[in-house]
Amino acid sequence: MPEAYDTTAILARLDAIERTLGSGTLQTPALAAPYLTPASDGIVAAVRQQFVPAVDVRHFGVTLTALDQRAPEAVARANTEALGSALEWSARTGGAVHLPSGSLDLWGVVELPRGASIRGAGKFSSRIRQLCQPASDAEPFVDVFAAPAVSGGIGGNGYNIVADLTIDGGWNLRNHSRDGNGNWHYDSARMTQRGLVFATPAGGPLDAAVRDAGSDAHGRIENVCFTNIAGYGFQMSGRGENFARGVEIRKTGKSAFLIQSPDCFLSDLTCYLSGDSGVEIRAGAGNLRWTNSKVWFCGMQRAVQGIGAAIHLPDPGTETIMMNNISTQDSWGPGLQLNGNVGIVFSGDIDEAGGGRLEQQGFGWRGTRSLPRAFIRAPGTLRRARITAQIKGGSRLGEAARPALVDLSGSGVGGCVFRLGGSLDHVATPPVRVSTGHVNAGRYNEIWFEDRLLHGQVTAKELNTASHGVNDPVYGPSRAYRNDGRLMVRGPAGWIQQK
């Protein structure tokens, strides 16, 4: 519970709603347990009770429409204010706001205060939709749910639950029809809308001294569909230990999600139809645990050449990202584009990276391609990564457009092991692409394909060169293969040849 239960502001707002709508309106239709039924004196008496498990959002003056209908602007504006009041009540009392089946249309952003929660009747039964859209290219898109302004180091949201509903940004791809290319043709710099933002002030364990529940955010997204978002389905930043499970994200102008808060847990996600990369994992997202998910149809935008990777780690400081049982499919760019730093782990499969089906069907950047085709790209300072994947697809656009297996373009990539499988029949020749800077830096990495070492053999001279990556005291291996096929093991006094 909050340290002070002050209902003055919320009750004043609810009194105004009651005067506008009348208590009789608020009493129909009657609601079944466990949701609070309106009392005889209307909405004010209903929400004065603190110990209520859930209240139907209609108690706060919200007007719902059928899923195939659209609310007038005046109704959507009133809904925005009423939903804000409902979430304030939830944050103050700990009760949940319940959204019945139907559509709740908004006109403007709704703040999700710390501790508020909202649940629908089902992912495809209850919808919250943003109707406020830019009137011109000079106007920005409007978020659906945003974090409150941070003040005094304890603002932002946290301890939220959003579950069992659809969040619709209202973005209409058909509005982007320049140059006769139809959908997915737009200025990617304008794609700033978010369906849901979990954001808190940065902090660490010391904050636990002033927060009864500890220092982390503990936001939860469960069984939610994000769709028609001109930007990111959801964004997580600030303090961590947020959770997302059973989430579907489709038709986003930028990426399915952007995560930059630490210690988060993601599972059972399906992310598809994104304008640029499927997902973005930034430097703040250390110790991420992500399992059992699929990312596909990424890099759909036509007007600008983006990265278009299924999974993109753009920052050199990203550490300890654990991705297990993840599938990528049909990306305009690579399946994995990894800058990162240390401890990046991936296990899964990569299908049709580097264009393939997207270009064949007319999606993705339509100009001259400068991004190399590859299943996996490491253009930065990736260190001590462990990538295990089955490779599929790659031959749809002909032999000249086959993607490389791994593109080691970053001169700082070292101490990484790639264990890949599948068939090389649809992979470029040579399958491994290495930049001159990478070679000159003397980096050591291993790339295995079906128990065959494609890249990583070293010469006797390199084994005896202290500055070579094979002898790096931090990232160097404990064993290596010489270019004559001999296995060498590191000993106290140097490398020892195994018989």
From TrEMBL:
Q: Which Gene3D superfamilies match?
A: Single-stranded right-handed beta-helix, Pectin lyase-like
Q: What is this protein called?
A: Pectate lyase superfamily protein domain-containing protein
Organism for this UniProt entry: Paracoccus yeei
**Taxonomic path:** Bacteria, Pseudomonadati, Pseudomonadota, Alphaproteobacteria, Rhodobacterales
